[in-house]
Amino acid sequence: MTKLDEIVAETKAQLEIAKRRVPLSALQETVANLSPRSKHLIKKTSSVQIIAEIKPKSPSAGQLLSGDPLTLAKTYEQQQASALSVLTNQKFFGGSLSLLSQIRQLTSLPILRKDFIIDPYQVYQTKVYQADLILLIYQICSDNFEELLELSLKLGLQPLVEIYDASEIEALQPILENPNYANQIILGINNRNLKTFEVNYKHSLELASFLPTEVLKASLSGIQTVTQAQELWHNGFEILLIGQTAMQNPSLLSEIHQACQSQKDN
């Protein structure tokens, strides 16, 4: 069993507990009664957009965050983050929906719920806790991907669709060629192999030519320097998700913004 298999199995077990505690019908009722709020989505712009991640720990690196995650969220905002990514898996990543909710009260930035989404129940959860974006990892939800995608869009959540290889891009072509979907999703290349947890930012560059031009493109993880960020942005990745490096050095975000702006001006 790979680490990914272990995480998905744990996710299924936790889902059963959550469903007994709060049934799906209760989540649906809560969503139906939510007050309308402005959509905080990520759109195409002429500037680089950075999703800064709050990840207390990881299976590969152990404990990552020693300080207060709420303070980190405010620091990210000050350093020009375009959005925040909040891990909500407790066992493997030290996050929670409660943490997401607390961060929601602190900031008006778009918030991505980053978790292992495999069930419509989790999509309703995501809306109840007032995230703006939802991560859909194609590798683990291919069997019911369209159901999760359509429900996310119906609830006003922007899907960040995570893929790893060219075969997944090919499988998604009917969706990527459908303007009803293509204009609303973000297509993200994960630079981390979820089976081995090895990371290489150049993985995004290797797949760049396979990506449709009209879809918002993101490079996810493994970005450690301003130079790497510039290279990705120059090759069509409008969005960069930065985790561990940003937590260690939040000022990297503003440095990337400045460097990419200078690159554009020149």
Point out poorly predicted stretches: none
**Helix-strand category:** alpha/beta
What is the strand arrangement across the widest sheet? 1-4-5-6-7-8-9-10
Largest sheet: 8 strands, parallel, barrel
Straight-line distance between termini: 50 Å
* Percentage of residues in strands: 15-25%
Known CATH architecture = Alpha-Beta Barrel
SSE order in H/E notation?
Answer: HHEEEHEHHEHEHHEHHHEHEHEHH
Question: For the CA atoms, what is the radius of gyration?
Answer: 17 Å
Look at the structure and give the CATH class.
Alpha Beta
The mean pLDDT is: 93
How many beta strands in the DSSP annotation?
Answer: 10
Look up the CATH topology. Answer: TIM Barrel
**What is the count of structural domains?**
1
CATH level-4 homologous superfamily: Aldolase class I
In DSSP terms, counting alpha (H) and pi (I) runs of 4 or more, how many helices?
A: 15
Shape annotation: globular
